[in-house]
Design goal:
502 residues, alpha/beta, Rossmann fold, 4 domains, six-stranded mixed β-sheet, 18 strands, globular
């Protein structure tokens, strides 16, 4: 602990980074009945805390190392941190980025005078290529999180929070990817103010640190979620795990909808738009307060970054209402007869606000509608389902059904009676020019595609829904073929939203 503390207190971060403000979030404080503060790391020169660790590491290089130059693999904020720091110190920098990296991030790194090499569809492939170049050139590798000086640089966030709050603190909520930020903050706080709780926050589908702490050792994640790309790591660091296992008090997992809702909450407080990873801490703080019924405490959430692609805002806006429990989605059966829709809206929904309404006649029996209803909380959501049942309407709550929210709501159109042997799959594939064509070419022409839906969401990965019409005797082959494609996929054939609407 003393060694880490010394490195933090002697860090050289302020040659590039700035001391960011700790601001009270008035609306969140009132709603949550706690004093909530935001540590505004989104106001750094590169709009991310990553600058602290990158600069502190590079500033420690010897003259001989500086002459060799630095290299890093990154698709996001670490790339900008290394590039900015290298330019500041007059050192050559090469950044290897996946070919799927959005153009805005690539140009941001190039504008900082770094050489950008695009390689592979994901971080792992870019990192492997980076290792090859490193071996050929002898440059100095700057790790994004598992490095003593990087951890120390990120730990200066904790030093600032303690000074700016005058020590009046109960808990700090920290977003977690590889663990550099939380390792530094936790080690610092436990050394100088051990009563302050350090609570890490991860997405439910990208939680390598949570799983590792539970297991007592670093755990490899075969697949990770892609929405909060700033924290999407399969493996945490060995150094960061050791510190987190020892000093972190608790971990919180949050959903994509909760992250989107927190992006909106931060915008309402600050009029700034953070990236998904940047909103993690606020999402975790809100969830933790509600779960533990906390009141009257002083809580800090670290807004870690604001490098948001503009194209993703549509998706965030769509999902924020569900994450705020302000919208509930239902599949409702109504009689297929004249006046049924009017009766449902005027007699059942009444004064409630309808946020979405999808319907297409499919047969002469009952009809199934996809309906969104404004709600104030989860209790009202349950009350509406009970209200439907009481009036004789069969319904299915699909508010938490990812297939329904990502694809089905845009596809309601009935069923094709000629299709009898269909399997449904949801795919994620790298989002880059020609990716969709390459995906279809890889799928080949062995089977008929009976359903297809793709909608760009401004991220590094696209989401595709495919129906395949297969004879019974060929179904055993399909998973082997899909596995060989190399794309992440999920079998959705048994999903109730598919059977109701598609």
């Amino acid at each position: 602990m003393q060694a880490v503390l010394k490195r933090i207190l002697t860090s050289k971060v302020y040659g590039a980074a700035v001391e960011t403000p700790l601001e009270k979030a008035a609306k969140l404080s009132e709603r949550l009945k706690n004093d909530v503060y935001l540590k505004r790391e989104d106001l750094q020169p590169i709009f991310s805390f990553k600058l602290r660790g990158a600069y502190n590491r590079i500033a420690q290089l010897s003259l001989e190392e500086q002459e060799r130059g630095v290299i890093a693999a990154s698709a996001g904020n670490h790339a900008q941190g290394v590039a900015f720091s290298a330019r500041q110190l007059g050192i050559k920098a090469i950044i290897v980025m996946p070919e799927t990296t959005p153009a805005i991030k690539v140009e941001a790194v190039r504008s900082l005078s770094a050489e950008v090499i695009l390689h592979g569809d994901n971080y792992s492939e870019a990192a492997a290529h980076c290792a090859t170049i490193l071996e050929q050139t002898g440059m100095v590798y700057i790790h994004p999180f598992d490095d003593d000086h990087v951890i120390a640089g990120q730990g200066t966030v904790g030093d600032e929070i303690l000074r700016q709050s005058a020590g009046n603190l109960d808990a700090i909520f920290v977003p977690v990817g590889g663990g550099g930020l939380i390792a530094g903050v936790a080690a610092y706080m436990k050394a100088v103010s051990p009563g302050v709780k350090i609570i890490g926050v991860e997405p439910q589908d990208s939680c390598a640190m949570t799983r590792s702490i539970e297991a007592g050792e670093p755990v490899h994640q075969k697949q990770v979620g892609i929405f909060a790309d700033g924290v999407a790591v399969r493996d945490v660091g060995k150094k960061t795990f050791k510190l987190c296992h020892k000093y972190v008090d608790d971990m919180v997992l949050v959903s994509t909808d909760e992250i989107c809702s927190s992006i909106r909450s931060i915008y309402q407080e600050t009029r700034s738009i953070v990236e998904p990873a940047g909103a993690l801490a606020v999402a975790g703080l809100r969830k933790y307060v509600q779960q533990h019924q906390i009141e009257g405490q002083h809580l800090v959430a670290i807004n870690s970054g604001a490098n948001m692609n503009f194209d993703r805002l549509r998706y965030v806006a769509e999902r924020a209402q569900v994450g705020e429990h302000e919208e509930a989605l239902f599949a409702v059966n109504i009689p297929e007869k004249a006046g049924a829709l009017r009766t449902f809206c005027t007699s059942i929904v009444k004064e409630r606000n309808i946020t979405e309404f999808n319907y297409r006649r499919s047969n002469q029996g009952d009809a199934c509608i996809f309906v969104g209803i404004s709600t104030s909380d989860t209790i009202e959501r349950e009350d509406f389902k009970t209200h439907l049942s009481r009036h004789g309407y069969k319904s299915l709550d699909i508010t938490d059904n990812e297939l329904a929210k990502t694809h089905v709501r845009y596809m309601v159109g009935g069923r094709c009676p000629q299709i009898q042997q269909e399997l449904l799959y949801r795919f994620w594939f790298p989002e880059r020019p020609g990716a969709l064509s390459k995906f279809l070419a890889a799928l080949g022409s062995a089977w008929d595609i009976s359903l297809f839906h793709y909608r760009t969401q401004g991220g590094c990965f696209g989401r595709v829904l495919i129906g395949l019409e297969l004879p019974e005797d060929q179904r055993h082959q399909v998973n082997d073929v899909l596995d060989n494609l190399g794309y992440v996929y999920l079998d959705e054939t048994d999903n109730p939203a598919y059977h109701l609407f598609l």
